[in-house]
Amino acid sequence: MGYADPKQVGTGLRQRLYSRAFIVGNVEHPNERFVYLVLDTQSGDTAVRYGIITALKELGPAYASYSHHNIAVTGTHSHAGPGGWLNYLLPQITSKGFDHQGYRAIVDGAVLSIRRAHESLQPGYLSVGTTKVLNANINRSLFAYLANPEAERSRYNVSTEDDGSVEKDLTLLKFQRASDGKNIGVLTWFPVHGTSMLGNNTLVAGDNKGVAAYLFEKSIRGDDTAAKDFVAGFSQANVGDTSPNVLGAWCEDGSGQMCSFENSTCSDGRSQSCHARGPFFRAKDDGASSCFEIGKRQFEPARALYDQLNQNPVPVWGSLVKSFHTFHNMSEFTFVSKGKEVQTCPAALGYSFAAGTSDGPGAFDFTQHDGNENTTSPVWRAVRYLLKAPTDKQKACHAPKPILMDVGEMYTPYQWTPNIVDVQVFRAGQLVIIVSPGEATTMAGRRWKEAVHSASTILFQQEVNSAMDPSTVPPPVVVIGGPANSYTHYITTEEEYGIQRYEGASTLYGPHTLDAYINVTLSFLPFLGARAAKPPRHEGGVYPPDNSNRSLSFITGVIRDGTPFFKAFGNVLTDAQTLYRCGEHVKVTFVGANPRNNLRLEDTYAAVEKLDVKASKTGYEVWKRVRDDSDWGLVFHWRRTGEVMGTSEVDVVWETEDWAEPGVYRLKYYGDAKSLGGTITPFEGVSSPFTLV
């Protein structure tokens, strides 16, 4: 999910996807709390959020504190996850509609993570810090970024490595329980797109954020400073125009040239050959090596900051915890900005939306920046009018965006994109978290954060009583997290919008979208004050639709699984060699079955087992699991080999690490086969032992 390519059909698992839940509450007022979820998904979602809130209500009175106001459902923006679970029609089209199995897995996993966090609630301490992350992101739409005022840009141009075109700051919140001083988790914010795994990748993965979380949690095992169930969440920030492909965009047409600066095209005037390059782009692994490296580049400074905060904590001030959430109709919102009355528009996407980006170029003859009905085939003009012709009023409202799809005014068979958006902010002491439903660009995020910082500074000073020294009140620490709760595509500055590259064309509600978000945010911000009343209830207000039970689906189910003649499920077709060296790949092929028969949540499809030589001296072989499919280096591939007979094969590949212990190992495969009558039967397959030296 993310590249919107119907040909990108999943074939296996590179890395398990997780929901990581963080709950912050006020010890003195326990009902004042919030839940910040980090899902290894493309974004948050309206239907998913509705599903989570409904499930929490069903858990009973102990969960009555959780509601729309204090639950944020954010996604890491991985483009390597399953599709088919989003609420609105447009993102469902390329995934053949709505997949109830995937939707339920996301909702159930999120609820389980909240339950575990809730059940482990106890008094503790928060500390917060910031560090630099270098060489992990660049601006993929620098031409649009440079349209922002030079004076504004110069404020962020710190050095050659940190020139301000993207944010290099990573903010980390550390959770420490009071009972024994053990750390129980970290939550970080840093902007970089989840597009390290390329558009031709078909293996599920959490992309670079998933790698960073995996490395952090792995590094903590056995650490005396941390609790056993330590959780590391790597959340997105103002991610809109960032890319993890730090070597830039190049033409893959044999010319050896970089893509054009203005519109990301190559010598043929098209965008299809323009591809951004990660640090290990020459590796033929669909981006896996680059993905791991960009994840590592986030993990290492985050871990160093964690260690620093252990030695010199910067505490979150006081015990105040506040939150608000509102649904806001962006279709025709009139407000005052910079001294004049302006208005947002019903959602629409411009021609450059269809051009894609250098992280994942689009199809046909669409280009960024200069895409319109005069530079593309007349076919697209006809398609636009067949779907829904924008009115003159809509065209004027979105100008200078040339409208390709008037999605905010398309309701057949149900709504194509949201017009009602989530606006939400959390506060814990001096930490203020803007929960954004869209992908704010670098400068858009800065303006949003600065507006909240200024208003929060005033709010904090108003909380100072006569017995307090105002100088002891720390300044606000403002972060932005998302895309969350719904998915409202992009949020650019008005200047970037005028350039109409991909991000501007994907800014749904017109040129004043950012200012509208800021306006609504600031109007509700006083509810985060220490003496503020509770924010308004949602009852009686506008609500976005929940399409989960009426969405179309053309995803075919599993009919049956079969085996080749004289074979059984789990039989080895290609076995391991007898000897491997560390760094080599071990590959075993099994007679398989469709993995959709059982998603094996909280379980595994594959494992590496090591022979315990000492324990085996009793006369029985004792094998201990040392890897499962949550490990980056153990890869699960599935492929259908016969449609009529329903036969399939599975490759379990262990990309042995340089640091792997020498010894005797074997690979295992766990599958589930479906009969024609619908019965699902589990089975296992195991390779011959092999030696790793």
Q: Topology, pairings included?
A:
Blueprint lengths: L11 E2 L5 E7 L7 E7 L6 H13 L12 E5 L13 H5 L6 H20 L4 E9 L5 E2 L2 H4 L4 H5 L14 E9 L5 E7 L13 E2 L2 H14 L5 E10 L6 E2 L5 E3 L22 E3 L11 H24 L9 E9 L4 E4 L2 E4 L5 E2 L5 E2 L2 E2 L16 H11 L3 H7 L4 E3 L14 E9 L2 E5 L3 E2 L1 H21 L14 E5 L8 E2 L2 H6 L2 H4 L7 H12 L47 E3 L4 E2 L4 E8 L13 E6 L11 E6 L5 E9 L4 E9 L7 E12 L5 E7 L3 E3 L1
Parallel strand pairs: 1-9, 3-4, 8-10, 22-24, 23-25, 27-35
Antiparallel strand pairs: 1-31, 2-3, 5-7, 6-11, 7-8, 12-13, 14-21, 15-16, 17-20, 18-19, 21-22, 26-28, 28-32, 29-30, 29-33, 31-32, 33-34, 33-35
Helix pairs in contact: 1-3, 6-7, 10-13
Pfam families: Ceramidase_alk, Ceramidse_alk_C
Catalytic activity: an N-acylsphing-4-enine + H2O = sphing-4-enine + a fatty acid
Protein name: Neutral ceramidase
Overall description:
The protein is globular, with a radius of gyration of 26 Å. Strands 9-1-31-32-28-26 form a six-stranded mixed beta sheet, with no helix packed on it. Strands 27, 29, 30, 33, 34 and 35 form a six-stranded mixed beta sheet that branches. The protein has a four-stranded mixed beta sheet with strand order 5-7-8-10. The protein folds into two domains: 12-330 and 418-528, no CATH class; 572-692, Neutral/alkaline non-lysosomal ceramidase, C-terminal domain (Immunoglobulin-like, Sandwich), CATH 2.60.40. With 693 residues, it is an alpha+beta fold. The two termini are 39 Å apart. Zn(2+) binds at residues 77, 193, 439, 490. This is Neutral ceramidase. GO terms for molecular function: metal ion binding; N-acylsphingosine amidohydrolase activity. Its cofactor is Zn(2+). It catalyses: an N-acylsphing-4-enine + H2O = sphing-4-enine + a fatty acid.
